[in-house]
Design brief:
single chain; alpha/beta; Rossmann fold; two-stranded antiparallel ribbon; 10 helices; globular
C-alpha cells in the first residue's frame, strides 16, 4: 500500500460477471463511466468472462475463480496486494438460489448457498476494503426475498436477508471513511435464474407480471449508488411489497403466499 498514488490504477471489481446482473453492470458502467482504467471480472466460467471482456471499451482483467475456495480467495488477496489498485467500485453479484421444499433438497446445495451468498460476499468485501478510499462505492446484490421468510425458497431468502442487514450496517460503519454501500433488492429479474426455473415448473402469473429486465434494475441501482442510498428497490410493485412487509404481520402475508404457492421441485442458477 506504499506505492505512489499516481501509479495506482482505478478499477471496478465485479463478481458474478459471467452472466445476469454482474454482466449487465459491466456493460452499463463501461458505457457511462470515466476515470476508471480497468475492470476486474470475476466468475467461475472463463469463456463467458472472455466474451464479456472482448465487448468492453475499458481494459478488462478476467479472474476465473471459485469464491467458495479459501485458496482462491487468498490468491486474490495476494494479487490485490501486488497490484495495489484503488477500487472505485466493488459489485458483489455472485450467488445462486435453489427452490423447493427444504427437507427434499440436497443439503450440500443449501449449505452452498450460505457459503457463496453470505460467507464469500463478506470475505470479498473485507478483502477489498483496504484498497478503497473516500468516494468508493460498494453494491451488494440482495433480493426482495430478503424482506420476509419465503417457504419454498427458505435458505435463499435467509441468505439475502443476511446480505441486506449486513450491507445496511456496513454502510453506517463506513460513513466516516466516505465509502457507501448500497443493497439492491429486486424482485424477479429476467436472467438465467428463471430460465432454468421454468424447466422444472411453471412460473406463476403474478411473478411473470412483475418480472423486470436486468438493464432497468441495474440502471436504477447505479443511480441509487451514485446518490449513496443504502437500499435500491426497482419498480412500484416491489416498493409496494417492501412497504407491505413493514406494515402487515409476516404471518398474514405468508398465509396469502401459501394460497398462490409456487414451489418448483428443484432449480439452480449460478454466476
Amino acid at each position: 500500500m506504499n506505492q505512489d498514488r499516481k501509479k495506482r490504477k482505478n478499477i471496478i471489481l465485479i463478481t458474478g460477471a459471467s452472466s445476469g446482473m454482474g454482466r449487465e453492470f459491466a456493460r452499463q458502467l463501461d458505457a457511462g463511466l470515466d476515470g476508471v482504467e480497468e475492470f476486474w471480472l470475476i466468475a467461475r466460467r472463463r469463456t463467458q468472462l472472455e466474451e464479456l471482456a472482448g465487448q468492453l471499451k475499458h481494459r478488462a482483467r478476467i479472474l476465473p475463480m471459485d469464491l467458495t475456495l479459501s485458496e482462491e480467495m487468498n490468491a486474490l488477496q495476494r494479487h490485490l496486494a501486488r497490484e495495489c489498485p484503488v477500487i472505485r467500485m466493488l459489485i458483489n453479484c455472485s450467488g445462486y438460489g435453489v427452490m423447493g421444499n427444504f427437507a427434499m433438497l440436497e443439503k450440500e446445495e443449501q449449505a452452498g448457498m450460505i457459503d457463496l451468498n453470505c460467507r464469500a460476499l463478506t470475505e470479498m468485501t473485507h478483502i477489498c476494503l483496504p484498497f478503497m478510499k473516500k468516494g468508493s462505492r460498494i453494491i451488494q446484490l440482495a433480493s426482495s426475498a430478503a424482506f420476509l421468510p419465503q417457504p419454498g425458497f427458505a435458505v435463499y431468502a435467509a441468505t439475502k436477508a443476511y446480505v441486506l442487514s449486513y450491507s445496511r450496517a456496513l454502510n453506517r460503519e463506513l460513513k466516516d471513511r466516505g465509502i457507501s454501500v448500497t443493497a439492491i433488492c429486486p424482485g424477479p429479474v429476467k436472467t438465467e435464474f428463471f430460465d432454468i426455473a421454468q424447466t422444472t415448473g411453471e412460473i406463476p402469473l403474478y411473478k411473470q407480471f412483475v418480472m423486470a429486465k436486468p438493464d432497468r434494475v441495474v440502471k436504477k441501482a447505479i443511480r441509487d449508488s451514485v446518490s449513496r442510498r443504502e437500499l435500491s428497490v426497482y419498480g412500484w410493485t416491489m416498493k409496494a411489497f417492501y412497504l407491505l412487509t413493514k406494515l402487515l404481520p409476516h404471518r398474514l402475508i405468508l398465509d396469502v403466499m401459501e394460497r398462490i404457492e409456487y414451489a418448483p421441485k428443484d432449480s439452480r442458477w449460478e454466476s
